[in-house]
């Protein structure tokens, strides 16, 4: 298989995809993916935004996110093409008590448009439910309207209480309520 997704359709790729929890050996490739992806997605497309050294260091700090909850990687074969973090112990800028914080969701540019972000968002919702969380919250860089639409299409709602500055960049809050588990008891007893 070539290193490019060109010519492959979603059904073909799905046979080679896995989503697993990251290990320490994934920290460097995930950090590289995040720096590249965030640079292409936010900073190159949005005038005036600069991918600062502090932001690069934050994106590369995969180990800290693994220890604060978890990091998951999306692999095509043995190549990491996506990742996200779900934090149990969010930072002081977190505005919803007892909520998980979704951070650093990224898909390599070659694989945009194939539904992988949605796959990871649904996986995060499943993890949150298994951790008995009531809410997942996240931030979107102000003006990243396409990204905001992605999250809204998966049930996240805009929550201005989460608006803040992160490393000098304006960010906007979004949250998703996790439904309580439905009873597995049959209605017929």
Question: Which residue ranges are poorly predicted, with pLDDT under 50 across at least 5 consecutive positions?
Answer: 1-6, 182-189
Give the H and E element order.
Answer: HEHHHEEEHEHEEE
The percent range for helix content is 25-40%
What does the largest sheet look like? 8 strands, mixed
How many β-strand runs?
8
Structural class: alpha+beta
Count of separate DSSP helical elements: 6
User: How far apart are the termini?
Assistant: 52 Å
What would you call the quaternary organization?
A: single chain
Rounded radius of gyration (Å)? 17 Å
- Report the mean per-residue pLDDT as an integer: 85
Question: What's the overall geometry?
Answer: globular
Describe the overall structure:
The radius of gyration is 17 Å and the shape is globular. With 189 residues, the protein is α+β, with helices and mostly antiparallel strands. The chain has helices at residues 10-14, 27-43, 53-60, 62-67, 116-130, 145-153, and strands at residues 17-21, 69-76, 79-87, 100-107, 135-141, 157-158, 164-166, 169-177. The longest helix is centred in the N-terminal third of the chain and has 17 residues, at 27-43. The model is unreliable at 1-6 and 182-189 (pLDDT under 50). The protein is 32% helix and 27% strand. It is built from six helices and eight strands. Strands 1, 2, 3, 4, 5, 6, 7 and 8 form an eight-stranded mixed β-sheet that branches.
């Amino acid at each position: 298989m070539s290193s490019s997704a060109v010519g492959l359709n979603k059904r073909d790729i799905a046979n080679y995809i896995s989503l697993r929890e990251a290990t320490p050996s994934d920290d460097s490739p995930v950090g590289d993916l995040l720096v590249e992806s965030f640079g292409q997605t936010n900073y190159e497309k949005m005038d005036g935004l600069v991918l600062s050294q502090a932001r690069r260091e934050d994106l590369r700090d995969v180990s800290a996110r693994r220890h604060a909850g978890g990091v998951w990687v999306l692999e095509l074969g043995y190549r990491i093409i996506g990742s996200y973090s779900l934090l149990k112990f969010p930072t002081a800028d977190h505005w919803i008590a007892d909520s998980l914080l979704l951070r650093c969701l990224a898909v390599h540019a070659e694989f945009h448009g194939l539904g992988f972000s949605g796959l990871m968002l649904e996986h995060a919702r499943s993890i949150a439910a298994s951790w008995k969380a009531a809410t997942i919250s996240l931030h979107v860089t102000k003006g990243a309207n396409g990204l905001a639409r992605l999250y809204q299409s998966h049930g996240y709602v805009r929550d201005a209480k989460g608006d803040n500055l992160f490393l000098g960049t304006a960010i906007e809050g979004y949250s998703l309520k996790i439904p309580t588990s439905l009873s597995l008891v049959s209605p017929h007893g």
